[in-house]
Amino acid sequence: METQSSRWLGHGLYLLIMAILISGVYFSGQRINYTWHWERLWPYIVNTDPQDIFAETDGTVVIDEKGTLSIEPDYGGDPQIVREYTTLVAYDGDLIFQGDTLARLEGWRFGPIAEGLWVTIKLSFISLIFSIILGLIFGLMRISHRQVMRNLAVTYVEVIRGTPLLVQIFIVYFFIGTVFDLDRFTAGVAALSIFTGAYVAEIVRAGIQSVPTGQMEAARSLGMNYVQAMCYVIMPQAIKRTLPPLAGQFINLIKDSSLVSVISITDLTKAGREVVSGSFAPFEVWFTVAALYLIVTGALSWAIQILEKRLSASD
């Protein structure tokens, strides 16, 4: 049995090891004469600089009594209307050319890294929902009494698990996406859902088969049909047993979502590459990107642990 003093000693050793690792990273940077510029990174996360509003066409500035700014194009067409601004740069009656600054908008807004993080979260969440649906369907098909169902499920699982995700993304985007006219985001969601669904299907199958067969026999002897027995007896037990492997698979899904940057979806990874080229702070950017992925995956792991504890307490 671990004592209180041994636990504190363990915490102290952990902090010592982490301090050594962080020091190693710092002195490695010093060894290659790298100058850290963390201050360059903040505007790419939350930008507080004034935002210039530019003219989209040549024309004349018109400002009405409500303060709405518009540009009447010289060569016809719809006027450009600007309702929200803080400071005017152009005034009523001014001649404006395309690209000229009309006004400035004060305030803060999310930078490319924060926007990329939101795209990653949205992409991962939608893919997670569809992968659960696919996994449940094909997991049940794997244990079906009908041979055709089992064959279809085995084919899906083996083909998807036996080919790289990157190749599947290209196939979904360039072939299936062209046939069905899918945009980049939809193609990315489809590829991630199909890929993760194959692994979820095997986890669901293993969870159902881990429940003793006597549970199904007992449920049927009480007058339940097959569907009722699965819903009320087998699946609740299987879900509790599959939560840990499902948590690992969903965490992998979040990390695998970084591959959709190859089809020009500006997720966290692609935003990181773009920021590196503009900030010239590669180490700071990639350490920040890694930390953001860790926060997202850690939050998901923590949520599943809470769910697991609540389900175990209900036994």
UniProtKB/TrEMBL annotation:
It is a multi-pass membrane protein. The keyword Protein biosynthesis does not apply. Residues 117-304 form the ABC transmembrane type-1 domain. The chain crosses the membrane at residues 12-29, 117-141, 153-176, 182-201, 222-239, 285-304. One of its GO terms (biological process) is amino acid transport. One of its GO terms (cellular component) is ATP-binding cassette (ABC) transporter complex. PROSITE patterns: ABC_TM1. It is found in: Cell inner membrane; Cell membrane. GO terms for molecular function: transmembrane transporter activity. InterPro entries: AA_ABC_transptr_permease_3TM, ArtM/GltK/GlnP/TcyL/YhdX-like, MetI-like, MetI-like_sf. Its main location: membrane. Keywords: Amino-acid transport, Cell membrane, Membrane, Transmembrane, Transmembrane helix, Transport. Part of the binding-protein-dependent transport system for glutamine; probably responsible for the translocation of the substrate across the membrane. Belongs to the binding-protein-dependent transport system permease family. HisMQ subfamily. This is Putative glutamine transport system permease protein GlnP.
